[in-house]
Amino acid sequence: MSSDENLRRALGGLSEPERLHHERLVATTALLADISFADILVLVPILGAAAPDSGVGSDGERRFVVTAHSRPITSQTVHPNDLFGLAVTDGERPLAALALRTGASTNGGAFLAGQDRWVQSLAVPVNLANRTIAVLLREFPSVSDRVWGRLETTYFGLFRRLAGMIADGVYPYATGPGDHDHPPRVGDGVILLDAWQRVEYLTPNAHSALRRLGIDGDPTGRRLAHVGLEPRALQLTVSASLPQTEEIERNGHSVVMRCLPLIQEDTLTGVLVLVRDITELRRVDRLLITKNAALTEVHHRVKNNLQTVSSLLSLQSRWLESPEAKDALSESARRIRLIAAVHEILSGPDGDSTPFESVVDSLSSLLRESLAPPNAPISIKVSGAVGPLPSEVMTTMAIVLNELVQNAVDHGFGGAAAIGTDGSEIVVRIGREEAGLQVSVTDNGSGMPEGPLQEGLGLTLVRTLVENDLGGSLVHRSTPGGTTVELTAPLPPTNP
Questions:
Q1: CATH tag, 364-496
Q2: How much is the pTM?
């Protein structure tokens, strides 16, 4: 059975509130792995064929699916391979079956047949509304050369408190701590506060972050408010017993504080504060904002300059008597206006993140207006999506699409003056495939002769841009019912 099928069967046995509780737990397994110095697994019973409500298979074994696997950044892992989506039996994880059956945490060991060794394990029932919906496993080496000091003891004590909250059904919290673009992790800094918000312990990284905010001296045994720092997030966490996140800027430094309440028997017993100094990250963010603003201004100025050049060409054409010269200047002015339109789009709020399909939609409107008379318009349809593209590719493609649509009008419909009123249509299809950017332009005109697309300046320009600038290829197919021109161009991979 595939991993996807295992997950579907396991999660299918949870109600909507239980599924949401499970998702929140999965989102916090990295924290639990870091403070417990161990791999954290979440196991959900899978519905068996023999007894669908029991999670017991036809062979009598209870089966689970690993719905989350987080490795610690504070210690070594016992599982080199990712176990997400793997189905396991109670014979492989007996403590999980015991915790599921009793609804209580239990310690012990497990033999990993694939690695031929024993690991230590702690199984914690994930309880919600008087039902055990999953089991959280902490697995770590049975023998370790790690020397435990104050930090290790404090971290593991925090894990045991959170594990108790998991068994009590109050962790994960009913609401998240709030989104942040640079959330802190355990390795960034930890401050442990007691029930009266006094500092019990703080890591060296957390101490450094506080000093950057102007907090000198050792705050241990004192409230943060008494040493000059009173985060609003901490106040809200204490008053509502819910997690909160706040970014504090002081003395030219930026620090993120994520406050997590520690609860036992409906009583706040302390607060876990994760701290991260993001001063350098914020500096980089500001540089990126400045760079984007500069790029936007460049696109705006280029657009203005191109529009000026287009206007000058249009004015010059009025002084000419030769029809060929007028047409040549008008065609050049139109090409320049299309490039200016691309820079205008790139100078907008979205900038270089503008999807290519939005650019094609805007260009199709300009082409429709400039190539067809009002009494006999061309229908230009656009389909497909590729997302953002580099600005130089967008500019090149604007020129290519302009020439291909112009070619369809000239060869497929016999020029703008000959366009009929019975549905002259051009279809532009775009897409991103393994080969790269895929674009086709199809018209329902009379077609044109087979052969290389090297007739005239426009089509020669298209072939040069596609093959030399984009490194792609160009082919066309023509029938009495129309012509299709297809181009393929490689593209850099998109960012995840």
A1: 3.30.565.10
A2: 0.65
